[in-house]
Fold this sequence. Notes:
By secondary structure, the protein is an alpha+beta fold.
Amino acid sequence: MGDFNAVIGGGKEGKYIGHYGLGCHNQTGEKLVEFCRRKEMCITNARFCHNKRRRYTWTMPGDIRRQIDYIITKCRYWNSVTNSKAYPGAVIDPDHSLVAANLRIKLKKVLKAKRRRQWNLDKVKDVMCEMEYRCETNLLIEKGKQKHIDLEERWETFRNSVKDAATKTLGFQISKNVRKLWITQEMIEKMDERRRWKNVNTEEGKKR
């Protein structure tokens, strides 16, 4: 934001200034146009065709009207602005008019990654659980051998048997997100100490 008193005037300036400016441009208006050109920005309330009452934003003594207030956006997002104009009837500062724009915003969808589940391998360290897993795996593999002869089918049976046995006997890990405390007890004590010394208006107090 700034207070430049810039008048861009009528006339198109590339993709930065539209056809529907108001008045004759002044020196600060040229600087504002140059700024928009350098920063790849466009003045929105000069892009839409409105009555002059919807374009001027400042009234001088003697009922002289100028357009010196603007809404500026990056050229990349110019098509997100569907309208931009002044509202002289709004009850605000008496010599300036409210300038408002309508925006069409499309929020980007954030895709959450699926977390891969992991086997609870700590149970394998338990002898009884390990034996149960081995027996269950062997049982499922023997059942699969009786049904399929093809090599590819036997591999699928073996893989599924190992996974099913692990699911039944070992299960999956339960993730525990341990978050670090934002404020620790040490920080609270330091805050109390600072509060005590802050009220001591001596050289020692200022130093501490």
